[in-house]
Amino acid sequence: MDSTARYNKAIADLTENNQQHLLAFYDQLDNISRENLLCQVESLDFPEINSWIRDYVLNESPLEVPTNFDPASYYPVDPKDDNQAQIYDNAVNLGKKLLSDGKVAGFVVAGGQGTRLGFDGPKGNYQISQIRKKTLFRLFAEHILAVSAKYGAKIPWYIMTSPLNHSATLELFERNTYYGMDKNDVFIFQQGTNINFSLDGRILLADKCTLASSPDGHGGSLRAIYKSKALQDMQQRGIEQLSYWQVDNPLVHLFDPLFIGLHALEDAGMSSRALIKAHPTEKVGNFCLVDDKVTVIEYSDLPDDQAHRQNPDGSYVFELGSIAIHIVSTSFIDKLNSAGFALPIHRAVKKIPYIDPSGNTVNPDKPNGVKLETFVFDALPLASKSIILETLRQEEFAPVKNASGDDSPDVTRKMMTDRAAAWLEKAGIKVPRKADRTIDCVIEMSANFAVCADDAKAKVETVPRIKSGDSIYLG
Ligand code: UTP
Asked: Does domain 45-403 have CATH number 3.90.550.10?
């Protein structure tokens, strides 16, 4: 078809679906931009788009929230009896074996826009460590290398980006010589995108020849791993388990043998770390059982009476919060994609820059449009088996989300020192504290020094005396 015929077909399709504004600036474009725009329009699947508009854009509360659910059971931080202690021992041994056999890889999702932090560029390039000013990507690479050395096996690293930050991320890795990792063991791939809509269901234009779109959510990772052939690469390397984490949490225990081992022992498809919520309505997802399947119900969807329901011992019935740390089996991802799967779509009303009918760029100061995303935890009920292992907030959860206040870099940095101090104190080292018992020094503990409290214990001899106000780097 020549370009005139293609234009005529496109305008007819768009008009039929009330989206003809997308070609409003066609006459003003050069040939390359016209071609580019026509390709985007031709790739639109109108039946699907119209169902999204009906179900998720015009409908304000589209997701069906289960009404019948129970709390999910979980493995506590410490085993509750001898029987469970034996299971933990077996799991640790299995986890260590999988690591030393090279069956485990790291997988970080780093395709988000990081709008709340307001940092320019990929969030992984944010300097979070207090003394050496290491970035999140550097900390993770050092952690991977340290665990790899500990178990004498390669641990490849898979990184999901989005079209918004893919080339910037590649450039960062090149410039930093892959943070000391072998370039061949780092696989960077992009997630998909979804188009953005105005609140009245029209597709937004980002500029005169580009439809507005945004990353399709961390749930997109399960398809992107497959489409990008990252899964194929994993299979060729014999990877069986993926340790999944988010780019904003430097405290995560990347390769905990207990977590990996429990997941593998139970032959689970996808498993989760959880913490006991700080209060009943903390803004984290809630682990529940729906039709016998582990399911995360978002904090906004958990009815208040359920959130406050208590057990006879005073604990909350729905006490387990999700912190986006998972083990996912490569066989589970393969099965999902081979059989075909769909995750529920979540609607987010956001400020989305767009081109108005006069061709001017508008940067809205209030939410004007809808982005559609899927969430990775929605895959949990698709797994035939899924285990949950409790962790402690101070050990493993300090995400950098906001520029200030809760979940800000200041809080994360303090938690990094606090955890290092706790590991040293556990090993018998005296760490200075103020009168109110808060830590009175800064400690930066590199992964090379320790990735867990036991590693720190083995290195006590090398730790200098720490005085009030000191800044100590343990490398
Ligand atoms: P968040 O939900 O915190 O979103 O992502 P965000 O985009 O990073 O930040 P805000 O909301 O714009 O401030 C949690 C994790 O999921 C990844 C992020 O990179 C982060 O590691 N993510 C999120 C993706 O990889 N892709 C997405 O489409 C969304």
From this structure: yes
